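[Discussion] Sanity-checking designs against the backbone

I'm trying to build intuition for which residues belong where. Below is a C-alpha cell string of 275 positions. I'd appreciate it if someone posts a full sequence so I can compare it with mine line by line.
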C-alpha cells in the first residue's frame, strides 16, 4: 500500500521535496534496506510554536517558530536553530532530514533535528533577541533534553543564543543542564574549537575531494561563498594551507583579487564595517 503524502506542506514541498527526491534516488542502491527508505520521507514529529515577544517600546510582536525531529533511531535529535526572515517549515524539515543522514554517515549516535524562527534578528535589540530566544526555548521545551533533543547554533545564532537556551531550559527543569545544547561558551562547558569546527569541516571535505582528483590544495585558487562563522573559518584554513583565496562573497557584496585575499584582514574589516 502506498503511503499518503504529507498534507501539512500543501502543494509546494520546497526544500523538503528536494530531500525526498534525494532519498528516492538512492533507493536502488540500498539493497535489503530499501523498504525502510519510506521512513526517511516522514519526519518523526513536527512542532510549530507561537513566540510572542515584548519589544523594547512595550508592544508585543509575534513570531513563528519550528522544531522538527526527523529521525531518532540512532539517538537524540541533533541540529541547529536558525533565525532568518525566510525560514519555513519545509526548510527546517529538510535540514532535519539532512542532519539524520550526516550523523549516520559519520557514525554519530544522534538522530536528525532542526529548528528555526521566522525573524530578521538584525531588526531586534540584544534584549529583544534574548526574550525571543528564551520564549522559543520554553515553547519547544517539551521536546528538549540531553537524551531527547540537543540544539546547536546555526544561521544568525551562536554562543550567546545557546547560553540563553541552556539557562532557560535549566531554569524550567530546576537544575543546571549543560548537555541540553552544544555550541555554548567555553565558560559554560562548551568545547574549544567549536566555533571554527564547521568551517574546518568544509576545508577537510574540499581537501579530500581535491586529493581524489589530483588537485593540490597548496597553490590552488579558492572562492568562498558566505563569510560568517563557517565561511571565514574555511577561508582561514585554506589560506593557512597555502591556497590562494581569490574571491569572497556575503550578503553585503563580493570582493575579488586574483593576487589573493588575506582572510584575517577581511575578517577584521567585516567586524568593523559589518560586511
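Best answer:
Here's mine. Compare freely.
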Amino acid at each position: 500500500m502506498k503511503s499518503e503524502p504529507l498534507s501539512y506542506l500543501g502543494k509546494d514541498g520546497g526544500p523538503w521535496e528536494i530531500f525526498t527526491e534525494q532519498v528516492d534516488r538512492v533507493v536502488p542502491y540500498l539493497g535489503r534496506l530499501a523498504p525502510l527508505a519510506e521512513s526517511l520521507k516522514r519526519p518523526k514529529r513536527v512542532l510549530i510554536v507561537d513566540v510572542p515577544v515584548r519589544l523594547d517600546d512595550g508592544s508585543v510582536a509575534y513570531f513563528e517558530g519550528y522544531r522538527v525531529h526527523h529521525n531518532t533511531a540512532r539517538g537524540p535529535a541533533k541540529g541547529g536553530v536558525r533565525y532568518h526572515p525566510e525560514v519555513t517549515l519545509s526548510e527546517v524539515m529538510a535540514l532535519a532530514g539532512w542532519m539524520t543522514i550526516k550523523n549516520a554517515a559519520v557514525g554519530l549516535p544522534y538522530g536528525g533535528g532542526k529548528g528555526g524562527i521566522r525573524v530578521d534578528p538584525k531588526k531586534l535589540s540584544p534584549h529583544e533577541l534574548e526574550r525571543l530566544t528564551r520564549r522559543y526555548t520554553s515553547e519547544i521545551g517539551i521536546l528538549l533534553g540531553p537524551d531527547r533533543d540537543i540544539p546547536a547554533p546555526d544561521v544568525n545564532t551562536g554562543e550567546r543564543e545557546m547560553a540563553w537556551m541552556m539557562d532557560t531550559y535549566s531554569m524550567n527543569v530546576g537544575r543546571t543542564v549543560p548537555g541540553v545544547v552544544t555550541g555554548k561558551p567555553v565558560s559554560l562547558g562548551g568545547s574549544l574549537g567549536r566555533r571554527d569546527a564547521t568551517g574546518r569541516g568544509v576545508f577537510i571535505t574540499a581537501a579530500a575531494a581535491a586529493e581524489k582528483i589530483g588537485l593540490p590544495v597548496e597553490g590552488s585558487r579558492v572562492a568562498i561563498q558566505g563569510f560568517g562563522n563557517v565561511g571565514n573559518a574555511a577561508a582561514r584554513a585554506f589560506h593557512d594551507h597555502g591556497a590562494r583565496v581569490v574571491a569572497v562573497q556575503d550578503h553585503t557584496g563580493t570582493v575579488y583579487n586574483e593576487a589573493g585575499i588575506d582572510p584575517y584582514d577581511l575578517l577584521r574589516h567585516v567586524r568593523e564595517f559589518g560586511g
